[in-house]
């Protein structure tokens, strides 16, 4: 064989190998892009649901706080004012503080603590609903989805805990 024929054969072989490599690389890349799009679509729908649940909980929290501040606390104050005798003018300033103002502050503090418990419960409910949606999306996609706890690890080692001094 002549050197020209040999060089032509080598060029053809290297060109066809490069073309085959491009073809084999192009197909998986396209499949990877399609799977990424599916994952992004699934993730965006989970993000939409997560945003929906968080907005609903925040609106419910605002409504609860607004109703408490504008309706319940004034009605409670008026009831205490009437029951303590301040409305008849029979109490001095010290009596007003002792019989009306301090019980009102105490009841408002109890009411605030109860509202915080309710608000945290609603936030945790939304977190559980989001985890269910993520789990359902993961099962549908065939992936292994593990929900991450926001409260911390239950079997945390003793060395990682904060120590009091």
How does this structure look, described?
This protein has 165 residues and is mainly alpha-helical. It has a domain at 57-139. 79% of the residues lie in helices and 0% in strands. It contains two helices and no strands. It is rod-shaped. Keywords: Membrane, Transmembrane, Transmembrane helix. The chain crosses the membrane at residues 46-77, 97-119. Residues 146-158 have a biased composition (Polar residues).
Quickly list its features.
single chain; 165 residues; mainly alpha; 2 helices; transmembrane; transmembrane helix; membrane
How is this structure best summarized?
The chain has about 160 residues and is mainly alpha-helical. About 80% of the residues lie in helices and about 0% in strands. The protein has a domain of about 80 residues.
Spans with pLDDT under 50 lasting ≥5 residues?
none
What is the overall silhouette?
rod-shaped
The radius of gyration computed from the alpha-carbon positions, rounded to a whole number of angstroms, is 34 Å
The end-to-end span amounts to: 88 Å
Our count of helices gives 2
Alpha-beta classification: mainly alpha
Strand coverage percent: under 5%
Mean of all residue-level pLDDT scores: 75
Order of helices and strands: HH
Largest sheet: none
Residues in helix, %: over 70%
How many beta-strand elements? 0
